[in-house]
Design a protein that fits this description.
single chain, alpha/beta, Ubiquitin-like (UB roll), Alpha-Beta Plaits, Rossmann fold, 3 domains, 5-stranded mixed beta sheet, 4-stranded parallel beta sheet, 19 helices, globular
């Protein structure tokens, strides 16, 4: 242990602790900008500087380790003045259109400028001007707002192990860019959006579809259906000041109805449908010597990663569409027929925690008989902005239910939003089917938690089934390498592109670096989904009466010709770099 003093407070911490962590663990705030715990800890921006008694210059607290007897000042006049100079220099080459920026009110640079009362930029001079990259259906990149913190670079390279972006150039010409400075759309980017979550400013954001949705809602000839993913309901409230992980399902349903959607449905129902097909596909592969391990295909960022980096492994992917794509196809077929709605007048809007879903719904494979499964995808953040535009006091809204019959779902559908949830939901149905009876066991805690790769062995109907769950593309790469080398021990694998699963998707409310360092956001959101599951009367997808109705009246049985037409798709190899000559 090391004894030191910070701002007059006696502190004892473990040897090897940084000054920043020692301070924060003891309730002393030190501002940061480039720092991202466990991801980007290089001390580039110098906002976290502190004074150490007896030493010349300043210490960079995010990388400087504590030493016995240190006396530290975090808020002296010299430190404050130095931080203001750092801020001034950053702002001098920053496009300061804050009022029209998506991150207005949730920008770490803006917050620091307010904190240090920066009302005028002293070092005005030449500013960089770069073309905005908005070619991708998912992500918009505006380098004019980049502060070169490199948090996005570190996330892409170290967490996801993709490396689609990096720093190039020197001095004033330094910038974050891509291979040959092409669009993110045309390089080895999975469109997972984790770079957006890491960015402290508005340099990275989702491709917005808010006006498209408002236009559809204003069109009296359009029947607008909305569906909401499980992870959205446990994060949306954060955009309105509610505690992290608050379940706002009822308020969200009310808000969507007040906004004018003709029907408000639940993607959890689509998740149950996915399990019906996915569990059946797995059983077919196991019993008929099909390609194993089978890998889930609900995460479009993961699918794009596989198509670009492991095309020879695509046969391992489930042919099932993701829940919201399945649901859209059913709304425009079964639902349209049953309730007499012209499918050509139906507009399906999906509210997703994921920016890659925008790309997914635009894929040419995602349509049936010329009708797109899903017309627009908006993120949790976009829905929050729409609710604010509609002038609603969201926390005060009364709760309401999803519309029947496509709003009934099992608890298994709810846990799709967290890593391990798809696997657990699939196992509940697969085990019952293979055993030919309802098994008392419902929870499979072996696949829960934040560990990057989780595994378990199940004994089912005399068979030994090995399963694995990977969260984040770096972990996905490890499992794919095993498959490619022919030594994978697994039968069934779940992969989600985003570390932690959909609850930490690239379209979820953005948390600043301090919150990310001190609060387990993933656990709070995931726990809320598990709570929904625990409180559900129906906890297995195949026990959802809506599933029985769908198969009896339309789909016939899991894996049928009709089911394949509407609920399954194909994947193909994609070039890592689509940049022409």
């Amino acid at each position: 242990m090391v004894n030191l003093k910070i701002d007059g407070k006696d502190i004892c911490v473990e040897e090897g602790t940084t000054i920043l962590k020692a301070a924060r663990d003891n309730g002393i705030d030190i501002p940061t900008l480039c720092f991202l715990k466990d991801i980007n800890e290089f001390g580039d921006c110098r906002m976290c500087i502190v004074e150490v008694e007896g030493r010349r210059g300043f210490a960079t607290s995010c990388i400087q380790k504590v030493e016995e007897g240190m006396v530290i000042k975090t808020n002296s006049a010299a430190v404050v003045e130095a931080r203001k100079v750092v801020l001034d220099l950053i702002l001098s080459n920053h496009h300061r259109d804050c009022l029209t920026c998506t991150r207005n009110g949730n920008c770490e640079l803006q917050a620091l400028a307010v904190k240090y009362n920066v009302q005028k930029v002293e070092f005005e001079g030449e500013q960089s001007h770069y073309e905005i990259d908005d070619k991708s259906p998912s992500i918009v990149r505006d380098f004019n707002k980049c502060i070169l913190c490199r948090r996005c670079v570190a996330t892409c390279k170290n967490v996801q192990e993709i490396g689609a972006i990096d720093c190039i150039g020197r001095g004033f010409e330094s910038r974050v860019s891509t291979t040959y400075e092409h669009s993110l759309n045309d390089v080895d980017c999975t469109l997972c959006g984790q770079c957006i979550e890491a960015c402290p400013t508005g340099a990275l954001k989702e491709k917005e579809n808010i006006e498209d949705v408002w236009k559809a809602l204003r069109n009296e000839d359009t029947f607008v259906v909305v569906q909401t993913a499980p992870a959205v309901r446990v994060a949306l409230g954060e955009e309105f000041g509610m505690p992290i992980g608050t379940n706002v399902t009822g308020k969200m349903a009310t808000a969507l109805k007040l906004m004018g959607f003709d029907k408000v449905f639940d993607t959890n129902t689509g998740a149950d449908l996915t399990i019906m097909e996915e569990a059946n596909e797995f059983i077919e592969r196991v019993t008929n010597n099909g390609i194993l391990p089978m890998i889930t295909s609900c995460s479009p960022g993961w699918v794009r990663f596989a198509e670009k980096n492991f095309p020879d492994c695509l046969g391992h992917l489930s042919s099932c569409k993701s829940p919201h794509q399945m649901f859209g196809a059913i709304v425009k077929s079964y639902y349209a027929q049953k309730y007499g709605v012209d499918r050509n007048k139906i507009c399906v809007v999906s509210v997703m925690p994921c920016v890659a879903k925008k790309y997914e719904c635009s894929r040419p494979e995602m349509e049936v008989d010329g009708a797109r499964d899903v017309d627009y995808v908006i993120t949790t953040r976009e829905l929050a902005r729409m609710i604010k535009q509609a002038n609603m006091d969201f926390p005060s809204l009364v709760d309401s239910e999803f519309d029947a019959p496509m709003g009934e779902a099992s608890g298994a559908g709810a846990i799709f939003g967290t890593t391990g949830g798809v696997m657990e939901a699939a196992v509940r149905t697969a085990v019952d089917t293979l055993e030919g009876r309802s098994i008392d066991r419902i929870e499979y805690t072996e696949v829960r938690g934040e560990t990057g790769i989780k595994e378990a062995t199940l004994n089912v109907a005399g068979r030994e089934i090995k399963i694995a769950v990977a969260s984040g593309l770096a972990n996905a790469r490890k499992l794919l390498k095993q498959i490619k080398e022919g030594n994978s021990p697994y039968h069934f694998i779940e992969i989600m592109a985003c570390p932690g699963g959909c609850v930490m998707g690239g379209g979820q409310p953005i948390k600043n670096s301090k919150t990310r360092a001190t609060v387990d956001v993933r656990k709070l959101r995931a726990d809320a989904l598990y709570s929904i599951d625990e409180k559900s009367v129906i906890r297995k997808s195949h026990e959802n009466p809506v599933m029985k109705m769908l198969y009896d009246e339309f789909l016939e049985k899991p894996g049928s010709h009709v089911a394949h037409k509407y609920l399954h798709t194909t994947y193909s190899a994609k070039p890592k770099y689509d940049i022409g000559e």
